[in-house]
Design brief:
The complex is a heterodimer of chains A (about 190) and B (about 220).
Chain A lengths: L1 H10 L6 H9 L3 H23 L2 H17 L10 H19 L25 H17 L2 H12 L4 H8 L3 H20 L2
Helix pairs in contact in A: 1-3, 2-3, 3-4, 3-7, 4-5, 5-8, 6-9, 7-8, 7-9, 8-9
Chain B lengths: L11 H12 L7 H17 L5 H23 E2 L4 E2 L3 H8 L8 H13 L2 E3 L5 E3 L25 E5 L6 E5 L19 E11 L2 E10 L6
Antiparallel strand pairs in B: 1-2, 3-4, 5-6, 7-8
Classes of the chains: A mainly alpha (about 190), B alpha+beta (about 220).
Amino acid sequence: MAEVLEAVGEYEDSELSDEDLMLASAHGDEGALDILYLRHKEAVLRFLVYRCGSWAVAEELLQDVWVKLCRNRFSYRVTAKFTTYLYTIVRTTLIDFYRKQPPFSDSVDDLSPSDMPRDAHQPDTLLEQDEQQQRLREALNLLPEEQRQVMQLRLNEDLSAEEIAGIVGVSTNTVKSRIRYATAKLKQAVTDE
Amino acid sequence: MSNRPNDMPDIQEDEDFLREIYRRNSPKVRPEVDDRILKAMKAEQKKRSRYPQWIGSGLAIAASVVVALTLGMVFYDWQYGQPLYSNTDRLVSAIPPTNPAADRLGAEYCLWRGEFHTYLDKNQNAVRDEGEPLIEVAGRPDVRIAGAPQPDTFSVQPGPDKGEAELRMNRLCGQGQVYASFRLYDDQYRLTSVEELQDNPEHRFEFGIAPLQDAAP
């Protein structure tokens, strides 16, 4: 599989858009999905880790997401950004997961920032960053579910309110309202000493 | 700064601040997880056909049609529109219908009529009357024989062997019972003669047959 990653790596900087790659995969280009995976895996994993609070579960769900995407590649139509499609699958995967069993953890407390693999640069600011991030996680966890979901999509991906509305199935104005409330709460939680 | 659409400029600064913290120390997918997921995706791509699912359904339907047609060719008599190996039905249908469009059937039908113009007189004597048919076949008003009883006065029974049939009728011209029988082998034969047997109190009629290709037009 190392050779696959190596080969895919050559195309990682492909100028093809996510949407083009998705269409290419539906037409039999087996490498196209690999490129998409490499482009988005970290962001999806980050989203899942924040959501489910378990590193192991997040990795399992990451696989489910990409296998589902692979399975549904023939029905993909370019009606919105690929990330909208991708995070719709992420959301349904999470819903399926929580339906099958109680949440592994309702909080993210079990996930220490030090557990998370990271780039080791800027070691002098790591401690402070970790404290801020920990406060953000805790604050996110205290948000109502509908606000947390919307805010995570907003922070994790550069999605517009309209795109988020398409994913969660509410109006754009509702999404904006939730973002405003959540942003205010999170900022207060992070900045308060 | 974020690349997101600036659809909420009033809180953009706060969002960017939070986003920077949120994305700090982003988790990395472990190589072994990469390996596992890429393998799973490859397996999925191999498993799934690139063709739409309706292709599979279409092929299944086409296969069913082929099977049905094959069975139909084997077990269904398309000429007479009924299943094969049903001697009773076969007998009735084997009696040529009135179908002016079918020359062969028409010729056979005429032959039938010409050979079987026989009836019984008051003294139980067979009388040939070229002008009238003698028997009327149930369900087939186009095949009639003069002086014949009503269609419900005789029955059609399967013969002992495949391709044979026997036709019985009771009461002919009000002169007692008459037992008439004939044999139809299959559509390759035609009736060529009628043999009248005095077998009191029944009269037996037997019909000769000959290959159809030998029949006179």
